[in-house]
Design a protein that fits this description.
This protein is of the alpha/beta class. The chain has 13 helices and 23 strands. The protein has 2 domains: 285 residues, FAD/NAD(P)-binding domain, CATH 3.50.50; 185 residues, FAD/NAD(P)-binding domain (3-Layer(bba) Sandwich), CATH 3.50.50.60.
């Protein structure tokens, strides 16, 4: 039974991870008249950094860009572990007096817009009680993957394996792996992070990959950044490093796209020096082009160090079946294990698996056009945060938060009760492109029926270029596409 509560908010933020906390800070500073709250399904903030607890969990981007522009990262390591990131988030909450605005353990089930009332009614479950909260504007900062389950392919014979099977998204706190033989299935960031950390205690860790990924070795501690901080101080130094690193990430991506062979060689040179040409050819030379999928970061080459010193190994090939004692590849090779870790990826969802209804119509976001990569055609007073795939997530997330702040201020000044991205004549005939164009990672391909589409003209685009995105999200609010209503 749904109980009605009298609470009404100007802005309801869903999600208390990096995106949601950052959004709340920007709204408080730039749109201070808005009454807001943050609801979070988990019992802690952090999102990804609270959910994932596998050994070695860390950022895949440097913290000078994954951190917020308004809060300098002051720890020594640029590539930070999950615990440090959580500490950073809690500091942000404390410094900006956000705790009073966060409601933990609140799960959103449904959001229904009424054009007559000009409000969202959000159905929430907390401690077994179901109730409604109404709000003028709904800001979804819940990430893009399913928190309840990860992606695991069907492996023939899985039931035959007598050992333990673990998905990294649900790592058991009491899992004892010291002295064990471990197979890690996968070749993405999770597998690459897990293996050197497991290898410090395990008897042997073997990565089994269907095909290789691009791997880039970089320093966990950025010595040049530390010098800049010593010279200019934490706040100015941080701003300089953040600007430098964002530009460098974008230049690296553009270089990879325009000169893929040269880019490959810069990666392969470092790998070759650690594990040799034969190993490089067999296990670390992908068949696709760089940045068609994410390039995995290897801080201080720890993954390759584990291979070099015999604590880890790699096998490339398709899995034929699980066996009683491990797995068998299509090549016929058998690998024994006590534990098999299925680091096989994420399952993407659209806006946190919430049912969205507008004036009685259940919304299918895959049939909608994305407005600037942050809103949807025909859906009023709704924004969502989606970061970059080729640059740190937070860099774009903050641009989205600032845009939403400006949008709310514009609405207040104009006396508007709602705003709706609306297709212009001819826009509906645009070619329907993927939400992130040219990105072929499996978890995105599996989500083609979930995410919205982009077109071939502004503002119905979602560029992965920072300069283009910044221009798009700092342009005038009243662009002729956003239609404002007054009640």
């Amino acid at each position: 039974m749904t109980k009605s509560r009298s609470e009404h908010l100007d802005v309801l933020i869903v999600g208390a991870g990096l995106s949601g906390i950052g959004a709340a800070v920007h709204l408080k500073k730039e749109s201070p008249n808005q009454k807001l709250a943050i609801i979070e399904g988990r019992d802690n903030l952090g999102g990804t950094w609270d959910l994932f607890r596998y050994p070695g969990i860390r950022s895949d981007s440097d913290m000078y860009t994954l951190g917020y522009g308004f809060k300098p990262w002051t720890k020594e390591r640029a590539i930070a572990n999950g615990e440090s990131i959580l500490d950073y988030l809690w500091e942000t909450v404390s410094e900006n007096e956000l705790k009073q605005h966060i409601r933990f353990g609140h799960h959103v089930r449904r959001a229904e817009w009424s054009s007559e009332a000009q409000v969202w009614t959000v159905t929430v479950v907390h401690l077994g009680e179901t109730f409604d909260i109404t709000c003028k504007f709904l800001f979804m900062c819940s990430g893009y993957y399913n928190y309840r389950r990860g992606f695991t392919p069907e492996f023939p014979g899985r039931e035959r394996f007598t050992g333990t099977v673990v998905h990294p998204q649900f790592w058991p706190e009491d899992l004892e792996y010291a002295g064990k033989k471990i197979i890690v299935i996968g070749s993405g960031a999770t597998a690459i992070t897990l293996i050197p950390n497991l290898a410090t205690k395990a008897e042997k860790v073997t990565m089994v990959q269907r095909s290789p990924s691009y791997l880039a070795i970089d320093q966990a501690i950025d010595q040049r950044a530390l010098r800049i901080r010593r010279l200019f101080g934490d706040r100015i130094g941080y701003a300089l490093i953040r600007f430098r690193n964002t530009k460098r990430q974008q230049r690296t991506y553009e270089f990879a796209q325009s000169r893929p062979d040269q880019f490959k060689e810069t990666l392969f040179k470092d790998i070759r020096e650690l594990v040799g040409q034969d190993y490089l050819d067999k296990h670390f030379t992908p068949t696709y082009q760089p940045w068609d999928q994410r390039v995995c970061l290897i801080p201080d080459g720890d993954f390759f160090q584990a291979i070099k010193f015999g604590r880890a190994d790699v096998e490339t090939g398709k899995i034929r079946t699980f066996t009683e004692s491990g797995i068998e590849l299509e090549s016929g090779e058998r690998i024994d294990a006590d534990i098999i870790v299925t680091a096989t990826g994420l399952e993407l969802v659209s806006l946190g698996e919430v049912d969205f209804v507008v004036d009685g119509e259940l919304i299918d976001f895959s049939k909608r056009w994305t407005y600037k990569g942050l809103a949807f055609s025909g859906i009023p007073n709704l924004a969502f945060t989606f970061g970059y795939v080729n640059t740190s997530w937070t860099v774009r997330a903050e641009l989205v938060a600032k845009f939403v702040s400006r949008l709310l201020n514009h609405m207040d000044k104009a006396g508007a009760s709602s705003v709706t991205p609306t297709l212009r004549p001819g826009d509906s005939f645009m070619p329907r492109e993927s939400f992130v164009e040219g990105f072929t990672s499996g978890y995105f391909q599996r989500a083609n029926g979930v995410l919205p589409r982009q077109g071939n003209r502004a503002p119905w685009i979602n560029p992965q270029n920072h300069a283009a995105t910044k221009k798009l999200l700092t342009a005038r609010i009243d662009d002729g596409v956003l239609k404002f209503a007054h009640c």
